[in-house]
Amino acid sequence: MFGHHHFNVTAVGEHKSFFADTIGGAPVGVGTSETQAIRFPNALVFLRRQTPTGGTKGTTINHIAFGAPDIRRMVDRVRAAGYPIVTRAELPASFEVNADLCYMIDQATYVAFTMAPDETKVEFIEIPSQKTPVAVHHIHFAAPIVPDMKAWHVKALGATPGKRGNFEAADLPCVNLTYSPAASPVIGTRGRSLDHIGFDVMDLEGLCAKLKGMGVTLNRPIAPVPALNATAASITDPWGTDIELTEGLAGCYAA
User: Disulfide check for 211: which of 149, 165, 216, 239 has CB 3.0–4.6 Å away?
Assistant: First the structure.
C-alpha cells in the first residue's frame, strides 16, 4: 500500500467531483463538511478546505499520475466533465500529440494531462494490464538535482532505485517516484494545492529513529490520529516536499 495525497482546496465539492465523480475514486466515511477522503485501490486522497497558495507546478512535485487501462475512455470522461486536457501544453514540442494523447516510445504507452481544480496537474498513463479502472501510478518530482533527490528518497524511505522509461525513478510498494530536472527554481509543497504526500509504513517508530539518525528533524512527532485509527509523524525532505508517515492507515481502505 502506498499511503495518501493531502490537498488544500478552495472548495471540497469541486475536488470531490473530479477525484470521485469523474475519475472514479470512492468517497469514504472519513471527514466533515470541511474535509473529505476519497479512496483509490492503492491510496487515499484527503481534501481539506483551505485556499491553496498555488497549484502543483512550481513546487517539488510537478504532478501526480493515475493509471487507467483505457486512457481514451478516461480522457473522454474528463473532458466531458468540463476539465481541460492540456497534454500538448505540458509536453515539449518534440513530443507528438494526437487527439490529446502522447505515445511515449520509451515506455510503450500513452499519456495525457489535465488540470484539476486549483491548478492541480494530473497525468493519466495507460496501463492495459491494470485490473482496476483507476489507481495511483506515480508521483512526478521536479528536482533541482535529480541524482541527489533520488538518492535521498532511496536512503530515507527505502525506495528501490531504477528507471521508468528514460526517467530516473525509484519504487515503493504501490507507487513509483519519478524524477525530472526542474526547468526553473522550485519551492516546497506546504500550502500549495498538493500540500503533502504520505506513506504508510510497517514500523513507524523504527523509520523515525532511522531518519533522526540521518539528521532529519520531525516536523510532528509520532502521535495517534484517532479519526483514522492510525499513528502519524511528518518530515520535510531537503528540497521542501512535506511528507507524512503513517502506520495503520490501511484500515481506511476498507469499503
Answer: 216
Bridge partners, 21 (sequence order): none
**For range 241-249, the mean pLDDT:** 94
What does the alpha-carbon distance between residue 159 and residue 191 come to, in Å, rounded to a whole number? 26
Which domains does the chain carry?
3-253 (3.10.180.10)
CB atoms within 10 A of CB 76: 13
Is the pTM higher than 0.70? The answer reads: yes
What is the DSSP secondary-structure string of 84-110?
A: PB-HHHHS-TTS-EETTEEEETTTTEE
- Please state the separation of Cα 216 from the chain's center in Å: 22
Supply the pLDDT for residue 254: 45
Largest pairwise CA distance in the chain? 50
